[in-house]
Amino acid sequence: MKATAKAHTNIALIKYWGKRNEAIILPTNNSLSLTLDGYYTTTTVEFDESLSQDQFMLDEQIASGEQYSRVTAFLDIIRQMAGKQLFANVTSVNEVPTAAGFASSASGFAALAAAGSKAIGLHLSEKELSRLTRRGSGSACRSIYGGFAEWEMGMREDGEDSYAIPIAPANYWDIRVAAVVLSATKKSVSSRAGMRRTVETSPFFQGWLDSISYDLAEIKQGIKARDFQKVGEIAEANCMKMHATTLGAKPPFTYWHDTTLVVMQKVWEMRSQGIPVYFTIDAGPNVKVLYLPEHEAYIEQTLRELQGVTDIRLSKSGQGITYI
Ligand code: 2P0
Fold first, then answer.
1. How confident is the model at residue 184 (pLDDT cuts 50, 70, 90)?
2. Per its UniProt record, what NCBIfam families does this chain match (predicted)?
3. 17-185-66-1 Cα dihedral, nearest 10 degrees
4. Which of 18, 80, 280, 304 is the most exposed, having the fewest neighbouring CB atoms within 10 Å of its CB?
5. Is the pLDDT of residue 38 over 80?
6. Ligand 1 atom 15: the closest Cα is on which residue?
């Protein structure tokens, strides 16, 4: 009744932004991501008849509050699926530095779903595992797969058709991502709250939704042809549209800081000099820069010299779920 799984985080190139059902996490649009090799969570789950409640150790500390309640609520789903009323010992170790601005919830829930479902004796297919993982955190359902993955939003109210599918494995194409760490630390609107406010109040939200099918079709063509310029252009434009929805919200908000714009402008400047380099930004101020290996040294050096940039973390395409 014990299992250990490792899952990597992912960066969305076509963003998940908006829910049609918050309780079971159903999105308003498909999204597409690249799983990253450097950032992962390793989780062990052991169901134990002698326990009277779940225990959750995160990075060698006893977790409480929202972190604990999200884990127990997720274990409840696993218990219900298995028809077993057993509590569990959960131990998670994150190798997702929060400073780099990657969500540990993606790797965290993917690892928890994989370890938890295996430990309790469920034999889930990858599709079933992705669908389960979605209930913990939406973006996590894409981390079941390595390389490029697409989360199909589905149409059903019960979420049975909302899960990720693999698009191309990690070794298909060596695309690199540099996470630009900024010194700014001001706490921003959480992605859950930001999504909700945007869906409910932004007149730009419909425009965002209307643009998704074109962006998805184009980026998938770009991936198929290994056309970096096409993939980069679409990913950057999609990110800009997502962030534009927040400016139209009531009250308006943005995840960008002054240094966010400095990095964006530097990427545009390098591009004007003929270097194929693009960016994407999630629900935070940090910028993720996309490039090909041959430009790594120059891009890293250029970004490091910017004022307000404290670190650059380089990453490659990563693997899907593994069991240890
Ligand atoms: C994404 N983000 O596609 C988008 C882009 C942030 C910006 O998924 O409420 O933590 O747990 O489903 O997955 C962040 O939202 O939200 C996110 P929940 P999640 O990666």
1. low
2. mevDPdecarb (TIGR01240)
3. 90
4. 80
5. yes
6. 191
List Cβ neighbours of 83 (8 Å cut-off, separation of 6 or more): none
Ligand 1 atom index nearest CA of 136: 11
Sign of the CA dihedral 36, 243, 30, 280? negative
As for ligand 1, residues whose beta carbon falls within 6 Å of it are 12, 15-17, 25, 31, 103, 105, 137-139, 191-192, 282-283
Would you give the distance in Å from CA 29 to the centre of its chain?
15
Q: What are phi and psi of 76, to 5 degrees?
A: -60, -40
| Residues found in the chain | 324
Mean pLDDT for the stretch of residues 117-136:
98
Identify the pLDDT of residue 185: 67
Which residue of 15, 16, 241 sits with most ligand 1 atoms within 8 Å of its CB, as the best mutation to test the pocket?
16
Domains, in order of start, for the chain: 2-171 (3.30.230.10), 176-315 (3.30.70.890)
Intra-chain end-to-end CA distance of the chain, in Å: 14
Complex prediction ipTM: 0.97
